[in-house]
């Protein structure tokens, strides 16, 4: 959420302070905001019910893999600049190991130049970039046949250096990954690099390919049956895991451990949030006053929403387990008896530095720089 959204959230809290928590008042869930007040047009109070959960699930974005990623099928490896080759001409050691038997294979490697050419005795400079191993083997065999009777040629790749993918963001080992003769899948590349679980936003993995950015919910796709294992990477692909610094759930009020929780997965429920902070305080909290405050970017055109859960209801645990949070939601647990809004404000204001830091952190979803 950007600064505008956070500003709107702050404005929402102040509006709620003015209209809901005047001295002597408590959170009346049946009539939270006077119907004739100006603020009523800016804030909407919603009781969490099975019907509301159904409506929320309808608007939830689908977690699908773009067909363009699935359509790419890797072909045989094609040579390119900086690839190191070991070319064998049977019965002709002077061509195979010009440095002598004592030298290792790497010392007799032939490296493709930056312009895609390779020099080989008798046949001179050969354009090899774009050729497969078999195509280069045939080419050398045909040209050597002018000087050697029925030459037997073999071509092996010692080092794959021309085709690479780049990994940046919340990886344990970001950087380049070479593509070799074995097709490289998305899951293989991520597995080799390793995910920094504490920093990664697992719901937003980005792939930059041919100028197009594709966003995947990696957490969901790897946790449910999907075709994510069929995604192959191609030369020049860039993978980026954004950081979860700007995705928080703020929990305050009558809970044992008020805090800001990192929202690093594709799904976090209200029950998970409450369980993480130790649940509502059994001695000071009100079972009827569990709220989720959800801001908007523009209060002039959209209403901020305050969802209310009656934790005294037998179905409360079921509802809380099905209610999906959104980044930057504020969970507030009210106190038993008369709850005053200034109690909420007194806990919110010390968190202003935290909220401001989150706003300044911003979103790096479209930044493919190495932000280790």
UniProtKB/TrEMBL annotation:
GO biological process, one term: monoatomic ion transport
UniProt GO molecular function: polysaccharide transmembrane transporter activity; porin activity
PROSITE patterns: PROKAR_LIPOPROTEIN
Coiled coil stretches, renumbered: none
Domain Outer-membrane lipoprotein Wza C-terminal span(s) in chain numbering: 336-358
Membrane topology: Multi-pass membrane protein
GO CC annotations on file: cell outer membrane; pore complex
Ranges of residues in domain SLBB: 163-240, 248-333
UniProt keywords, alphabetically: Cell outer membrane, Ion transport, Lipoprotein, Membrane, Palmitate, Polysaccharide transport, Porin, Signal, Sugar transport, Transmembrane, Transmembrane beta strand, Transport
Record flagged with keyword Membrane: yes
Domain Polysaccharide export protein N-terminal: 73-157
Subcellular localization(s) per the UniProt record: Cell outer membrane
Pfam families from the UniProt entry: Poly_export (PF02563), SLBB_2 (PF22461), Wza_C (PF18412)
InterPro entries: Poly_export, Poly_export_N, SLBB_dom, Wza_C
PANTHER family: POLYSACCHARIDE EXPORT PROTEIN GFCE-RELATED
Family: Belongs to the BexD/CtrA/VexA family.
Protein known as: Capsular biosynthesis protein
């Amino acid at each position: 959420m950007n600064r505008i959204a956070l500003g709107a959230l702050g404005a929402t809290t102040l509006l709620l302070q003015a209209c809901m928590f005047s001295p002597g008042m408590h959170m009346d869930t049946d009539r939270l905001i006077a119907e004739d007040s100006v603020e009523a047009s800016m804030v909407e109070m919603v009781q969490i019910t099975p019907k509301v959960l159904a409506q929320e699930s309808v608007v939830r974005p689908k977690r699908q893999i773009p067909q363009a990623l699935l359509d790419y099928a890797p072909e045989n490896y094609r040579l390119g600049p900086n690839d190191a080759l070991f070319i064998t001409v049977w019965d002709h050691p002077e061509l195979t190991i010009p440095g002598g038997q004592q030298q290792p294979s790497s010392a007799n490697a032939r490296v493709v130049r930056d312009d895609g050419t390779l020099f080989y005795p008798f046949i001179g400079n050969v354009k090899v970039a774009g050729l497969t191993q078999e195509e280069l083997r045939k080419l050398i065999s045909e040209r050597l046949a002018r000087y050697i009777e029925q030459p037997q040629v073999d071509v092996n790749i010692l080092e794959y250096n021309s085709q690479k993918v780049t990994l940046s963001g919340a990886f344990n080992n970001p950087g380049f990954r070479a593509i070799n003769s074995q097709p490289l899948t998305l899951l293989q590349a991520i597995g080799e690099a390793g995910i920094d679980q504490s920093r990664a936003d697992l719901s937003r993995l980005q792939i930059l390919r041919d100028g197009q950015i594709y966003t995947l919910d990696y957490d969901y796709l790897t946790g449910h049956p999907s075709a994510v294992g069929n995604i192959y990477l191609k030369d020049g692909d860039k993978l980026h895991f954004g950081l979860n610094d700007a995705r928080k759930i703020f929990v305050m009020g009558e809970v044992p451990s008020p805090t800001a929780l990192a929202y690093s997965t594709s799904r976090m429920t209200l029950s998970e949030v409450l369980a993480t902070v130790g649940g509502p305080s059994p001695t000071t909290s009100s079972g009827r006053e569990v709220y989720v405050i959800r801001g908007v970017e523009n209060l002039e055109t959209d209403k901020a929403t305050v969802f209310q859960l009656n934790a005294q209801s037998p179905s409360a645990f079921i509802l809380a387990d099905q209610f999906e949070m959104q980044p930057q939601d504020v969970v507030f647990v009210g106190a038993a008896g008369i709850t005053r809004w200034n109690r909420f404000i007194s806990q919110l204001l010390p968190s202003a530095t935290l909220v401001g830091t989150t706003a300044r952190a911003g979103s790096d979803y479209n930044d493919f720089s190495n932000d280790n």
